[in-house]
Design a protein that fits this description.
The chain is α+β, with helices and mostly antiparallel strands and about 260 residues long. The protein has helices at about 35-50, 55-60, 65-75, 80-90, 100, 130-140, 160-175, 195-205, 210-215, 230-240; strands spanning about 15, 30-35, 75-80, 105-110, 120, 125, 145, 155, 180-185, 190, 245, 250. The strands form four sheets. Strands 3-2-4-5 form a four-stranded antiparallel sheet.
Length: about 260
Amino acid sequence: MNRDSEASGKNGVFHLGDLQSGFNSNGTETIYIEFEPAFKKQLFAELLRISRTVTNLSEELGVKFTKLWDQLTRCPFSLSTLKKISKKLVENGLLDYSLNNLEKRIFYMKSAGSKSEKLFHPRFPINFLTKEGMRFISHIYHDGGIGKGNKQPSYVNYSEEECSEFLRDSQILFGENNRHLTKNRDGTYSVVLPTIIGEIMISLGYTPGDKTKNNSKTFEFLNKIDDLILVSEFLAKAFNDDGYVSKRGVGIQLSSLS
């Protein structure tokens, strides 16, 4: 998989423009975005007012005619196409169509595949500098993770309360999803989130896969937080997941962190 630029959102606040276009091995894009029908028709009308025809627009954007026509009329936009459309509209003075404005109008987002679960009304800009953000990140780096292949964030814990909180925090942070808790045979509870949330976390800088092998680095903004409440939220969840108390002392095992 290739990405079109380095991860952004380094200040802990993540915008649609920070999301990077991913591609599968066959060249298919991995991120798709859809708007309500009325707004999409409005977007189409503004583009035709500028370019006159879809053929002209296709040439100006460097997007194949059939692909562009499908995305303008019946399919979600790929992230790369939407970025090109936004840039063209803004360059023609239509600032209401900047990515920072479009992100507030998204109906749903999804990863590639007809069965991919949708994230409805994503909460851009996504602010990780919140209690929910600190708890979510801490869980991901400890008893959670993101799969290298499916890129789905997951979390496992013996505490039903911790797993419920993880799911609830994901919905507050990212938007509406239909995932739920699963009770496993070993007595643990688990949550697996939609792939599109994994795409966001990877664009933020998370390295998917086995944490003990890839030694994924933590996000830069975590080192700059001076809010003690946010720091305490992160550390509390880290201790709940990987902390220990022994005769020799109290600590947190951080073998997955660099």
